[in-house]
Design a protein that fits this description.
The complex is a heterodimer of chains A (70) and B (490). With 70 residues, chain A is an all-beta fold. Chain A is built from no helices and seven strands. In chain A, strand 4 and strand 5 form a beta hairpin. Chain B has 490 residues and is an alpha/beta fold. Chain B folds into three domains: 207 residues, Nitrogenase molybdenum iron protein domain (Rossmann fold, 3-Layer(aba) Sandwich), CATH 3.40.50; 143 residues, Rossmann fold (3-Layer(aba) Sandwich); 106 residues, 3-Layer(aba) Sandwich (Rossmann fold), CATH 3.40.50. The chains are: A mainly beta (70), B alpha/beta (490).
């Protein structure tokens, strides 16, 4: 259950940052991208996948969340 | 004449042959030939890994990253080196991060506060001594705005509770007391120290005046982060930002202070120079206070102009026009400088091995002078630094992560650069090899190098190093060509 920070970069892509590892990856696929439910399964550009408990509404970014490694 | 990728790969292989097989295999992952088309570095270079036993690394420790880099330049705090006396004493005032004020009255950056651990403190614990020390500092230096406790190795080993002491003492003296868990054995390099120090700023300082709204902010407030004012760098950057009509409300942490840090939350934009050491707090500022951060580069006129425009793009047209005016005012001066120095430096080849941001940030400044970077490497970078480096470097340039002294010397012997930029540990080795050298950690007792004013000094320094007549005298007169004729004449 790593702590990660989600933010949008200058190009508008969603960026996934694993705080403890100083590791930054762009998100290539998000299961529920809103409007409405936001979250679910996250696929990163390096191929790894994570699960984020979905929010009812798209949250204000940047945001630190706990995710599950899949 | 630069090498292509195959030639560079071959050079790496030849240098690695000396190592035992296992070491060679590990080190091979830290060396590569640059490919500017790459976006991500994690497939092609390994970074931020522990140096191997038996090789000579140039890295420092977590204490160096926290006390030396991040907390050291904050002028109005007393940084206690908590532990034996040496760590504080030998790192004191060596970094040339300039500060203004009166030493011992309102600035304390050039002093060494230490708890001077003895055997009995290790056996019985040093918490009482620390509490006494903090009270003493408050009596002797009432204008200090805060105290930080920078742990040295023994603190972590004996399990002292410096957080409890900090909380209690902070109440007693009514100022922030910041425990920093930067024991030297933590992590693989000073990079972890940056992170620990950033976290301590976040947890113990940043929010402490959140309920106080007496600070009058303007829509043009910005903060400079990751500029440590080496030789006055932050000042020569600040004048440009102020010239374009913005107000710098905080400097992190070169010539910075605790009140500046507490009011940083009023900034509208966070200008981040050293990504490596301050991205942590920048991310936090963005999340908690909604202050976006912007990486910029103030080395060399090309990069400065691009950065000024990038900064101005976040503000209205007045600022954008001002930025153009600033660039237009300085450009003729810069053109004159380049016309003077470029013919003397054109085509010279440079190798860099520094920390933080410099191996990628200074490339533009060298290229403005017509010089070429044939190799670059970081002491303690992470993969995100290499992501940012590939685009800046030319194709086929050598990249070395945490290069050992053997590797660096072998590369230099083979590549024969005209200039090397690295640290003090490398400096005299390369001087003895007869190669011009600049100490790029603290600008070799020169500086500033940031901003337009800094570029003038940078160009002069590179010229006087490379074209110094001493390099022609590396060989004894009787060993030179034509010495026989001299002998017969005598």
């Amino acid at each position: 259950m790593p702590n990660v920070m989600l933010r949008n970069n200058a190009a508008g892509d969603l960026v996934f940052y694993i705080t403890k590892k100083d590791h930054e990856e762009t998100v290539v696929a998000l299961e529920h991208a809103g409007p409405g439910t936001w979250g679910g399964e996250i696929q990163l550009s390096d191929g790894s996948r994570f699960y984020l408990e979905p929010f009812a509404q798209p949250p204000k970014l940047p945001l630190t969340v706990r995710v599950k490694r899949l | 004449m630069s090498m292509n990728r195959q030639e560079t790969e071959q050079l790496i292989q030849e240098v690695l042959e000396v190592y035992p097989e296992a070491t060679g295999k590990q080190r091979a992952k830290h060396l590569m030939a640059n490919d500017p088309t790459l976006e991500k570095s994690n497939k092609c270079i390994v970074a931020n890994k522990k140096a191997l036993p038996g090789v000579m690394t140039a890295r420092g420790c977590a204490y160096a990253g926290a006390k030396g880099v991040v907390w050291g330049p904050v002028k109005d705090v007393a940084n206690i080196s908590h532990g034996p006396v040496g760590c504080g004493q030998f790192s004191r005032a060596g970094r040339r991060n300039y500060i203004t004020g009166h030493s011992g009255v309102n600035i304390f950056g050039d002093m060494n506060f230490t708890s001077d651990f003895q055997e009995k403190d290790v056996v019985f614990g040093g918490d009482k001594k620390l509490a006494k020390l903090i009270a003493e500092i408050d009596t002797l230096f009432p204008l200090a705005k805060g105290v930080t406790v920078q742990s040295e190795c023994p603190i972590g080993l004996i399990g002292d509770d410096i957080e409890a002491v900090a909380k209690k003492s902070a109440k007693e003296i009514g100022k922030p007391v910041v425990p920093v868990r930067c024991e030297g054995f933590r992590g693989v390099s000073q990079s972890l120290g940056h992170h620990v120090a950033n976290d301590s700023l976040r947890d113990w300082v940043l929010h402490t005046r959140d309920d106080d709204n007496s600070f009058e902010s303007t829509p043009y407030d910005v903060a400079i982060t990751g500029d440590y004012n080496i030789g006055g760098d932050a000042w020569s950057s600040r004048v440009l930002i102020e010239e374009m009509g913005l107000r710098v409300i905080a400097q992190w942490s070169g010539d910075g202070s605790i009140p500046e840090m507490q009011t940083t939350r009023h900034a509208k934009l966070n200008l981040l120079h050293c990504y490596r050491s301050m991205n942590y707090i920048s991310r936090h500022l963005e999340e908690k206070y909604g202050i976006p951060y912007l990486e910029y580069n103030f080395f060399g006129p090309t990069q400065i102009a691009a950065s000024l425009r990038k900064i101005a793009a976040h503000f209205d047209s007045t600022i954008q026009d001002n930025a153009e005016r600033v660039i237009a005012r300085h450009q003729p001066i810069m053109d004159g400088l380049i016309a003077k120095y470029r013919p003397r430096l054109e085509g010279r080849r440079v190798m860099l091995f520094v920390g933080g941001l410099r191996p990628r940030h200074v490339i533009g400044a060298y290229e403005d002078l017509g010089m070429e970077i044939i190799g670059a490497g970081y002491e303690f970078a992470h993969n995100d630094d290499y992501d940012r480096t590939f685009k800046e470097l030319q194709d086929g340039a050598l990249i070395y992560d945490d290069a050992t002294s053997f590797e660096l010397e072998s590369f230099v012997e083979r590549l024969k650069p005209d200039l090397i930029g690295s640290g003090i540990k490398e400096k005299y080795v390369f001087h003895k090899m007869g190669i011009p050298f600049r100490q790029m950690h603290s600008w070799d007792y020169s500086g500033p190098y940031h901003g337009y004013d800094g570029f003038a000094i940078f160009a002069r320094d590179m010229d006087m190093t490379i074209n110094n007549p001493c390099w022609k005298n590396m060989q004894a007169p009787w060993k030179r060509a034509g010495a026989e004729a001299l002998k017969s004449a005598a």
